[in-house]
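Field reference: sequence -> structure
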Amino acid sequence: QVQLVESGGGLVQPGGSLRLSCAASRNIFSIYAMGWYRQAPGKQRELVAGIFSGGKTNYADSVKGRFTISRDNAKNTVYLQMNSLEPEDTAVYYCNAGYYSSGVYLPLNYWGQGTQVTVSS
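Structure field:
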């Protein structure tokens, strides 16, 4: 089993920055990839960033160059640093444990509760 808890969401102005954290209940990074998803009202949940168990990262085109996913293995924590935020980034952000297959991130049914990110002036 894996328990995931997100934190760090909030209200930020366009162009601002925010760092999300995802704390895992145990050390899973050696066997699972980790991903950050987001879902805005009326839209599908989308993968915005993923990190392989080996450390390679991957980003959706919409956030590439602005978001950075990283992890601290000692703390069992994954981060999403979000810079140059735009109103279109407004969504509930979810942490997920999964794996990559043929370059595609496949989520397992391990999700955090979500944290709201609102980008507005």
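Note: The chain has a mean pLDDT of 96.
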